[in-house]
Design brief:
heterodimer, A: 21 helices, 11 strands, B: alpha+beta, OB fold (Dihydrolipoamide Acetyltransferase, E2P), five-stranded mixed barrel, 29% strand, elongated
C-alpha cells in the first residue's frame, strides 16, 4: 500500500511538472499573471508529492518491507535504524529519488521565497526547473522505479553494501546532491534570461545566493566524501582522481568560476554572456557527473550492455539539456548587451584570470576523465589516467591560480595598480619566503617542491589576511579604529578572507600529508611494538565481538610517546554474514592536525595479524581548508546584500534598477 | 587603451592559458597513462620489462603463496595464458583465489609482474569490468559470472554507483 502510494505520488509529481513546464511559459507569452502564477502552486505541490514519495520509500526501508525489490536488495531487518534510513539513497533507484526530491526542494524554495522576482522571470525559471524535473521523473518511472514489488516476498533482505554502512552515507550524498542540484537554479535563471533576452546586474544579485548555497554544499560534500574514503577504505588515501570523484570536482571548479564571474556582473555589469555560459556549463557538468556515476559507464563503456535503457536514457537527457541550452545560448547570447569596460589590470581582470584558470583546469579534468572512454570506444584499447597525469597537468594550473589569488581582492575595480598591490603584498610574500627557508632548513635538503608549496600556501593565507588588514587599516590607524572598521566590514569581505585562506590551509595539509606521510606495514603478534614517527604502538591483543549484523575482530593497541601512554586504539575488521564480505574499520588518533591511522589485514596461521600503520602529519588541514571555504561562503551568504529571498516588495522595486 | 586593445589583451591572455594547458596535457599524456592488459595480451605483445601497466584476470586457484614479511605471490590467468605476480603488502579484503583482480605494476627481468597496487572492489559478486570484457572477448566467459553480472543489472549491489565518491573501490599500496 505504501509502495503504491509512493509510486502514485511520483506519477502525480510528473503530471504537475509537465503542467509547470508549459503553462507558465504560455502565461509569459500572453502576459497573463494568473497563468504565470500557476508555476508557483505547481512547484510547491510538486515538492509535496515528491516529498511524500520519498517518505514512502524511507518508511518501506524502516519497516523492512521485503516485498519491495529495492528494500530486499539493499536492506536487512537486523540493520541499525540509521543505516535503514541512509540505505534509502545507498542504491541507484533511491539515490535518483533523492536527486529529484532535492530538485523539487530547490524549485519549491524559489516558488516560496521568489516573491521579489519579476513575475515573468519567476515563471520562466520555474518552467525550466520543471523541464529538468519531468525528464528525471520519467527516467525514474521508466527505468529505475524504486517501488517495484516482488511476487514472492523473501523473508530476509540482502543487506546494504557494508562499506556504505557508515555515518558518511548519511551526510555525503545528500550534501553532494544539494550542491549538484543546486546549480540547476542558476541554470534555470540563465535559460530564463536567454528566453527573455534581458539580463542585468539585478539578475546576478538573484542568482548569486543560489549559486553560493549550491557551492557551499558541494564544497562540504566533496570534503566529507574525501574524509569518508580516507577512514573507511583502510589505506589512508583521500583523493584518487577516480572518475566518480572528478565528476564532483568538475562542477565545483566551474561553480567556483561562476561565483566569481557573477560577482563581476553584479558589481560592474560586465561579463554577462560569460556568466550565462558558465551557469549552463556548471549544471551541464553536474548532469554529466550524474550520468557518469549512474550509468556505470566509467568502469567500462560496455557497462551499457548491463542495462542499456538507463545509460541511454540519461545520455539522452544529457544531450537534450546541454545541446538545447547551448543552442539557445548560441542563438540568443549576442542579443545581450555588453557593459562595464575595464582595463586588463583591475579587479575584473583578476576575476577573468581566475575564471580562465578555473575553467581550463576543469577542462583538463574533463579531458582526463573522458579520454580513456574515448580511446576505448575509438581505438579499442584500455588504459587509465591517474594521479601522475593530473600532477603534471592540473597541479601547475592550480599553482598559477593560487599565486594570483592574493592579488585579486587587493586590485581596484575598473583600473588597478599592480605595482601598488605588489608592495602591499610584500609582507605576505616575505612570510611565504621565510616559511620556505625554515621548512627547507628543517627538512635538510629533502624534496625541494614541498617547502615551495608550503610557502605558497602561507602566501595565500597571508595574502587573505593582508586584504583584511588593508580594509581595516590595521597597523596604520589606531587599533580601536581598526576594530570599529572590522565590525563595519561587509560580511562578504570576511567571506572572501576565509574562503581564500581555506585554500592555503588545504594546500599546506595536502603537501605535508603527501610528502611526510610515514608508513609501517608488518605482521604483528600480541605484545609486539611498532615504532612509527616517534610513537610506540604496542599490540595488546585480539578479541572478537558480535555486532548487530556483523562479527568483528578488534585489535587493541596501546599508543605511547617517549614512554608516556597516550591512548588506546582499536582498529577492527568486520565480516558481514549476509553478503559474506568484510570491511576494515581503521582506528584514528588525532594529535593536533596530525593523525595516527591503523588498519588491519588478515590473520596468519600463527595468530599474527597484518597491520598497516600511518602517521599523517597535518592531514586534517586538508579538510579544515574546505570547511573554512564553506564557512566563508556562509558568511558571504549572510551578507545583507545577498540575503536569500529578503522578500519586501518595496525594496524589490528598487532592486529592479540596474546597479550603478 | 582602446576598447579593441583591451579585448585583444583578454583574448591573447586566454589563448596563452589555453596553449599552456594544452602543452601540459600533451606532456602529461606522454608518460603518465597506464594501459590495461591481460596475461594473453602480455604474452602476445612482449611487453618491455619496467613498462608500467595494469594487469587483469582471475587469480589462479592454488597459486597463492604467502612469504615472509607480507610478501605474496600468485598467478593471474585469463584462460589463455598465466602470469606470475609478486606483491608485498596487505591484500584487499575480497582478494580470493578464482576471483577477478586488477594489479598495477611492471614486469621485472625474469618476467614476473611486480605489482605495487592491487585493486579490488568491496563486493562479493564483483568482477572487474575490464577483466570481464577481456574474458568475454577470448571466449572464456563462464555463465556463473554472467549470473553475477545480471544480478547487478537488475538493481542489485552496485558498488561504484552507490556513492559519488567511488568509495567502494579500494586500492592497496
Amino acid at each position: 500500500m505504501i509502495a503504491e502510494a509512493g509510486h502514485y505520488a511520483l506519477v502525480l509529481a510528473l503530471a504537475l511538472a509537465l503542467i509547470q513546464s508549459f503553462v507558465p511559459m504560455i502565461g509569459a507569452r500572453l502576459r497573463d499573471p494568473a497563468l504565470m502564477n500557476v508555476a508557483r502552486s505547481t512547484a510547491l505541490a510538486q515538492l509535496l508529492f515528491v516529498g511524500a514519495s520519498f517518505i514512502a520509500l524511507v518508511t518501506l526501508h524502516v519497516n523492512s518491507d521485503f516485498s519491495v525489490a529495492n528494500v530486499y536488495e539493499n536492506s536487512h531487518s537486523m540493520k541499525p535504524l540509521i543505516y535503514k534510513i541512509t540505505g534509502v539513497w545507498g542504491n541507484h533507484e533511491g539515490s535518483m529519488l533523492l536527486w529529484v526530491s532535492i530538485l523539487a526542494l530547490f524549485g519549491g524554495l524559489v516558488a516560496a521565497f521568489g516573491n521579489n522576482l519579476p513575475l515573468s522571470l519567476r515563471a520562466h525559471v520555474l518552467a525550466v526547473q520543471a523541464w529538468i524535473a519531468s525528464a528525471f521523473y520519467l527516467f525514474i518511472l521508466i527505468t529505475s522505479n524504486p517501488f517495484l514489488r516482488i511476487v514472492n516476498p523473501p523473508i530476509e533482505g540482502r543487506d546494504l553494501n557494508p562499506v556504505l554502512q557508515d555515518i558518511g552515507l548519511a551526510v555525503h550524498p545528500p550534501m553532494l546532491y544539494l550542491g549538484y542540484v543546486g546549480f540547476s537554479i542558476s541554470f534555470s535563471f540563465a535559460i530564463a534570461a536567454l528566453i527573455e533576452g534581458r539580463i542585468d546586474a539585478a539578475w546576478a544579485r538573484w542568482v548569486r545566493p543560489w549559486t553560493l548555497v549550491a557551492w557551499i554544499f558541494l564544497t562540504l560534500g566533496i570534503a566529507m566524501g574525501s574524509y569518508w574514503a580516507y577512514y573507511e577504505l583502510g589505506w589512508g588515501g583521500w583523493w584518487f582522481w577516480d572518475p566518480v570523484e572528478n565528476a564532483s570536482l568538475m562542477p565545483w571548479l566551474a561553480g567556483t568560476a561562476l561565483l566569481h564571474s557573477a560577482l563581476v556582473m553584479e558589481k560592474r555589469n560586465a561579463l554577462k554572456v560569460w556568466t550565462i555560459l558558465l551557469s549552463i556549463l556548471t549544471f551541464s557538468l553536474s548532469l554529466l557527473g550524474t550520468f557518469l556515476v549512474r550509468s556505470g559507464v566509467i568502469t567500462s563503456v560496455h557497462a551499457f550492455a548491463n542495462d542499456p535503457t538507463r545509460g541511454v536514457f540519461i545520455l539522452l537527457i544529457l544531450c537534450l539539456f546541454i545541446g538545447g541550452s547551448l543552442s539557445l545560448f548560441a542563438g540568443r547570447a549576442t542579443s545581450l548587451k555588453q557593459g562595464g569596460l575595464f582595463a586588463p589590470i583591475s579587479r575584473e581582470g583578476a576575476l577573468v584570470l581566475n575564471n580562465l584558470l578555473l575553467t581550463v583546469a576543469c577542462a583538463v579534468v574533463l579531458f582526463g576523465t573522458l579520454y580513456p572512454l574515448a580511446m576505448e570506444v575509438l581505438a579499442d584499447f584500455k588504459m587509465s589516467v591517474g594521479a601522475p597525469f593530473y600532477n603534471l597537468s592540473f597541479v601547475p594550473l592550480f599553482v598559477l591560480l593560487l599565486l594570483a589569488v592574493p592579488f585579486g581582492p587587493l586590485l581596484a575595480w575598473k583600473r588597478g595598480d599592480l605595482l601598488g598591490v605588489t608592495q602591499r603584498l610584500l609582507a605576505a610574500g616575505v612570510a611565504g619566503l621565510v616559511v620556505i627557508a625554515l621548512v627547507w632548513a628543517w627538512t635538510r635538503g629533502g624534496s625541494a617542491l614541498a617547502p615551495l608549496a608550503i610557502g605558497l600556501g602561507v602566501f595565500v593565507i597571508a595574502g587573505a589576511l593582508t586584504d583584511l588588514a588593508e580594509r581595516t587599516g590595521l597597523f596604520r590607524l589606531p587599533f580601536a579604529t581598526s576594530l570599529h572598521r572590522a565590525r563595519g566590514l561587509p560580511r562578504s569581505a570576511w567571506g572572501t578572507v576565509f574562503a581564500h585562506a581555506g585554500l592555503g590551509v588545504a594546500l599546506i595539509g595536502i603537501v605535508c600529508e603527501t610528502t611526510w606521510n610515514s608508513e609501517y606495514i608488518a605482521t604483528m603478534k600480541p605484545n609486539d611494538v611498532a615504532q612509527v614517527a616517534g610513537y610506540e604502538l604496542k599490540l595488546d591483543g585480539l578479541l572478537e565481538r558480535q555486532g548487530p549484523n556483523y562479527r568483528e575482530m578488534i585489535a587493541q593497541f596501546n599508543v605511547s610517546r617517549d614512554g608516556e601512554a597516550l591512548s588506546v586504539m582499536t582498529p577492527s575488521k568486520r565480516s558481514f554474514t549476509t553478503r559474506g564480505s568484510s570491511t576494515t574499520e581503521a582506528a584514528l588518533l588525532t594529535r593536533g592536525a596530525s593523525q595516527l591511522y591503523i588498519s588491519l589485514g588478515d590473520v596468519t596461521a600463527e595468530g599474527a595479524i597484518a597491520v598497516r600503520i600511518y602517521h599523517k602529519p597535518l592531514v586534517l588541514m586538508i579538510w579544515w581548508g574546505p570547511v573554512l571555504m564553506a564557512f566563508g561562503g556562509m558568511l558571504s551568504l549572510s551578507d545583507r546584500r545577498l540575503r536569500v529571498g529578503a522578500p519586501k516588495p518595496a525594496r524589490a522595486k528598487q532592486r529592479l534598477q540596474p546597479a550603478e | 587603451m582602446t576598447r579593441k586593445q583591451r579585448r585583444m589583451t583578454i583574448i591573447g591572455g586566454s589563448l596563452a592559458v589555453l596553449a599552456l594547458a594544452a602543452a601540459l596535457v600533451l606532456n602529461a599524456l606522454r608518460d603518465s597513462i597506464v594501459f590495461f592488459s591481460t596475461p594473453t595480451m602480455v604474452a602476445e605483445n612482449h611487453v618491455q620489462p619496467g613498462k608500467r601497466f595494469r594487469l587483469g584476470g582471475l587469480v589462479q586457484p592454488g597459486s597463492l603463496q604467502r612469504g615472509d614479511n607480507l610478501a605474496v605471490t600468485f598467478e593471474v590467468a585469463d584462460g589463455g595464458a598465466k602470469l606470475p605476480v609478486a606483491f608485498k603488502g596487505i591484500l584487499p579484503d575480497l582478494f580470493r583465489e578464482g576471483q577477478g583482480v586488477v594489479a598495477e605494476g611492471a614486469l621485472d627481468a625474469n618476467g614476473v609482474f611486480k605489482a605495487d597496487t592491487v585493486l579490488a572492489k568491496h563486493d562479493e559478486t564483483y568482477m572487474p569490468k575490464d577483466v570481464a570484457d577481456a574474458l568475454k572477448k577470448q571466449g572464456h566467459w563462464k555463465d556463473d559470472y554472467g549470473a553475477k553480472d545480471s544480478n547487478k543489472a537488475s538493481g542489485g549491489p552496485k558498488p561504484s554507483a552507490t556513492t559519488a565518491q567511488g568509495n567502494s573501490q579500494g586500492a592497496v599500496r
